[in-house]
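Lab channel / #folding
Pinned by the channel admin:
"Please post every new chain as: sequence first, then the structure tokens as a reply. Keep commentary short and put observations after the output so the thread stays searchable."

First post following the new format, from NK:
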Amino acid sequence: MYGNIISSNIDIQRKEIFRKDFIMIFSIKNIGIIKSADVKMDGLTVISGANNSGKTTVGKALYSIVSATEDLKEKQDIDQAEAIYNRIRKIADVFSHLMRAYDRRSLFFSFDMETAKDIVEEIWYIKNEDYRGQNNFAYYKVLLYEFYEKIVTDEFLDLALKDIKDKKGLSLELQRKIKIEWKENKDSALKQCKSAMDFISSVQSSKEFALKMIDRALQEEFLGQVQSMTLMNEIEEESSLRLREESGKEFFNISLNDHSVNMQRSRFEESYFKQGHFVDDPYVIENNMPMFRFMRMRNRTTGKMSYTESTVLPHREKMNQWLKINIQAEKGISESLYKDKQIADVMEKINAIVPGNISKDTYIDSGRRIKVGNLATGSKVFSIIKNILEKGNIDEESLLVLDEPESHLHPRWINALAEVLVLLVKECNITVLLTTHSPNFLLAIDALMRKYDIRKNCHFYQTEKLEDDFRVQYVEKTDDLDEVYAEYARAFSQMNAMRKKYMASEES
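Reply from TO:
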């Protein structure tokens, strides 16, 4: 499929222009178990360390911000539409009081007026889930002001009175009672209208909304416990998340207080990464997670993206929903990558492990059909990466976070995965952040980055526990990987020494 794709000179030129010629630095202070970390990112960044030493925290924190600000305008439109919809619904509830079957004291109900039904028909229409799903803020805004005008001028009342007169006749006493009932509902409806119009006039800026979404995402990913916790459950130092170019340009600087984003002290300029993926669980590819909170979903027939109630999802739910989509993007791999013949090398490495494809809950390969739940765990890791590529959900402005992806892999497959990731960085210009505590995986990346000449775009870090503190810091080991290998070797040497000791005693 990919072997005959030839890059044009224009494509090559575009890629060279885009290729990152600067280093981004993601800085963390007092987040999770991390006291401080300055992580360089311009290709492949590897974090190693012991269990429970804060390796995952960097990836979760950065992914949260990227995911929160992905398709930001669409999210803001949804959020605003949802907010004004809820306010308009309260207006509809006021008018529906006139039509409630259980309240036979209502004169509007008693006369079964067509006009009374017309009063609420338009506003009730927005409660239709199919229409609501469009999240049309502009429509809601126009509708609101139309209703306000008809309420404040008593247009609805005049129509109702005319309807009664035409059908039943209208005495002065009946007219008086209907006007009283109308006024009671009118005051309540105007109050709800005023609330909705106040909301419209105070709509947040895109930067304010971005901070709001970042706060939501961090709360989801860290279960409401974002900042470091001291032994006394008190935070004495500032907590922050910052992404900047090494030269100084700042993308965002998020300050946190009491585990929440400090809106006054935080800054968000833009998101360098347009989309992000976080993979830490190969079982996420199985179709066993509920679909009740999905943020973004592609229509299974048209491929068109749409948004529904929640605008933030934790990474596993988001990945699971994406993987459930059966339709491929129109051109499979995103256009800029699709045109590059070198993507064939990446797909070739993946297909050597998982040549088949997943449809719904079944892995299909040369007529063989295997339930995804029965697929080898290691195969699931490669299938997820393959799925992301084939659906076109990755490009040069993507962040791919992999948390200990080698955990379920045989050493030969570890080597294959390392080669795939190195090629993604080299040929596709994707930013990859991964954690590991495997010397085999580290060695494979170390060797392959040299083979494919991307050493200058690779950075290695090790977590180190601070003295007299439960927290850790990140120490760069890019030019001193032998020290990292030595740390891994100590555990091996310890067991090997023990083995030889008891072998000697057995022989004696």
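NK: The two ends are 63 Å apart (CA to CA).
TO: also worth noting, The chain has a mean pLDDT of 77.
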